[in-house]
């Protein structure tokens, strides 16, 4: 006697038992038959086109840019996956393909923003080891919305900060345990102390914390329109004058 493989429902996999006369059964019930019909009527979702690494990175940046624009204009709470896809001009499936989950997207966009800000800051800040005061002033001005590019970046970061207060997973990424900017400012002050360019009796780390937090706070006031650029830059200059000796005394 010949062994025959048991027929199973094409939808749920339930065994159909021995075949009778006529056409072999394909479904175990009318419900499964209806589900199969609906699946045939529904067009399949297109798979994303294979992309070169450069194209994939470019598309990721386009999607991240959409996150930034929504965050800066409407707040990060408005950045749903569908809104981001619409803003970027791509399909929702494309957003999911490039970033996976919404959390991965928000974190990825934040990392790209940090990288862009650091690159632009390096281009703007001239490193002059013979003038640590001017160098510190240029570094601190990166915390201020002195042009449209920096204004946009600070609005995005402010939206992320607000979201991080109620999103522990995002806060773990946004609020790093390290303080690279404060470390850099403290190092510059320390080097200036060794060269005799600073006033005596300063704690470089405390001064760095005050300078950075002050610049960030003043930058926030500028975003709200509470203070102008002239007032804010004058305030930073006043604090730098308390740290550094006049050039003739250095």
From TrEMBL:
It comes from the Bacteria. Residues 1-26, 38-60 are annotated as: Disordered. Keywords: DNA-binding, Repressor, Transcription, Transcription regulation. It holds the Pfam family TetR_C_6. Residues 80-99 bind DNA. Residues 57-117 form the HTH tetR-type domain. This is TetR/AcrR family transcriptional regulator. It comes from Streptomyces mauvecolor.
